[in-house]
UniProtKB/TrEMBL annotation:
Name under which the protein is recorded: G protein-activated inward rectifier potassium channel 1
Membrane topology per record: Multi-pass membrane protein
Positions marked as site (Role in the control of polyamine-mediated channel gating and in the blocking by intracellular magnesium): N187
Disordered, as annotated region: 383-439
Record GO biological process: nervous system development; potassium ion import across plasma membrane; regulation of monoatomic ion transmembrane transport
Membrane-crossing segments per the record: 98-119, 173-196
Domain Inward rectifier potassium channel C-terminal: 208-377
Length: 439
């Protein structure tokens, strides 16, 4: 099978997927584990040109719902999972957890029922079942089924009273003590496991919201990256805190390649703004300064970058006191330059009302297209910050054939001259925004 290496930059042969040799409809995209491929097969005599621009599907490190796309393979030391069997059972899916729960109890009942039957068989109680003068180890135990039922009654402390152990059987008394102790241990372990699994605060994170997009705009004369968080429940998150990570591959000075390198994004750790009183939705801000990874990124460069911003919200659930964590992420195409979030808080008669219909909505605002570093240099020189005026809303067709004046506005901050034949570069965020408006 021939391998396909194109603008995707990956060998599809290694993915174990057979691809057609020719395609006709490049709009039909077939998702795979790592890329987005196109489907559709032509006939043997037809010829088909490859697509002019085949965009690869970005693989997220963290999904929008907080799921981490990391799978552990070739784990040889599997005994480590058994050393922490309690956590292993809690982490199992519900269907497997219930299966283990049922098997553990059934196994112990059958095991001790077999021992009770062996005691009765060895003592000869089964042969004297109808002898009223014979004193058995357990009254009314005449087979394995009755021994199994007596085992269930003993371990669950039901005690119907029909089958009773006598004082003439010391081995039975010892077995009764052993089963009572082991039964209590099994109950404590399995019931504790089920209680912890039921009370896990994972579902509490479902009511913690993150905005679908992040925005970049001016705040207090500084370029800032902002996103919004909110809590839908009336029971609040206690000691809530927020932090953010920049996930981006990098090359070191020594030539080492570090895939998915993690870098902290300061969202108010120095000033205490990362500790939230999350009663109403809040806008989390990251200022572009010298220590920021976005210090030298402009609007034009943002469209060419490949990174992912992972945001993590942590706190204690007020109702249970357990720690809860909610996660989300933003790709570079989900970062909107020159936008602000629409206010959601309004004052009503006697209370404040939050309108979650506008929680994810943004609106355009005048924002420099150059980087924060260039803005700082202009401020040192005492020059005015050039901000291009907001252009009226345009359609996607108009953006595909932009005018020369729009090209000049896009490079106003850089101070470069634009040729008449240059075309405007549209970022992923602008395209997504226009598609949303059209819908």
């Amino acid at each position: 099978m021939s391998s396909f290496k194109g603008q995707i930059g990956q060998d599809v042969e290694k993915q174990g997927i057979k691809l057609p040799k020719q395609w006709i409809d490049f709009k039909d995209k077939v998702p795979t584990d790592r890329t987005m491929l196109v489907g559709g097969v032509t006939s043997a005599g037809d010829s088909c040109e490859p697509p002019s621009s085949l965009k690869k599907r970005r693989q997220r490190y963290v999904e929008k719902d907080g799921k981490c796309n990391v799978h552990h393979g070739n784990v040889r030391e599997t005994y480590r999972y058994l050393t922490d069997i309690f956590t292993t059972l809690v982490d199992l899916k519900w269907r497997f957890n219930l299966l283990v729960f049922t098997l553990v109890y059934t196994t112990t009942w059958v095991f001790f029922g077999l021992i009770w039957w062996l005691i009765a068989y060895i003592r000869g109680d089964l042969d004297h079942a109808d002898d009223d003068e014979w004193t058995p180890c357990v009254n009314n135990l005449n087979g394995f089924v009755s021994a199994f039922l007596f085992s269930i009654e003993t371990e669950t402390t039901i005690g119907y009273g029909y089958r009773v152990i006598t004082d003439k059987c010391p081995e039975g008394i010892i077995l009764l003590l052993v089963q009572a102790i082991l039964g209590s241990i099994v109950n404590a372990f399995m019931v504790g496991c089920m209680f912890v699994k039921i009370s896990q605060p994972k579902k509490r994170a479902e009511t913690l919201m993150f905005s679908h997009k992040a925005v970049i705009s001016m705040r207090d004369s500084k370029l800032c990256l902002m996103f919004r968080v909110g809590d839908l429940r009336n029971s609040h998150i206690v000691e809530a805190s927020i932090r953010a990570k920049l996930i981006r591959s990098k090359h070191t000075k020594e030539g080492e390649f570090i895939p998915l390198n993690q870098m902290d994004i300061n969202v108010g750790f120095d000033t205490g703004d990362d500790r939230l009183f999350l009663v109403s939705p809040l806008i989390i801000s990251h200022e572009f300064n010298e220590s920021s990874p976005f210090w030298e990124i402009s609007q034009e460069q943002l469209a060419r970058e490949e990174f992912e911003i992972v945001v993590i919200l942590e706190g204690m659930v007020e109702a249970t006191g357990m720690t809860c964590q909610a996660r989300s992420s933003y790709l570079e195409s989900e970062v909107m330059w020159g936008e602000r979030f629409t206010p959601v808080l309004s004052l009503e008669e006697g209370f404040y009302e939050v309108d979650y219909d506008t929680f994810h909505q943004t609106y355009p605002t005048p924002t420099p297209t150059c980087s924060a570093r260039e803005l700082a240099e202009l401020a040192k020189k005492g020059e005015a910050i050039p901000i291009a005026p907001l252009s009226p809303p345009t359609t996607v067709e108009e953006r595909s054939h932009p005018s020369t004046e729009q090209d000049k506005d896009s490079s106003a901050c850089a101070g470069e001259e634009v040729d008449e034949g240059d075309e405007e570069t549209i970022s992923n965020g602008d395209v997504s925004r226009e598609e949303t408006k059209l819908e």
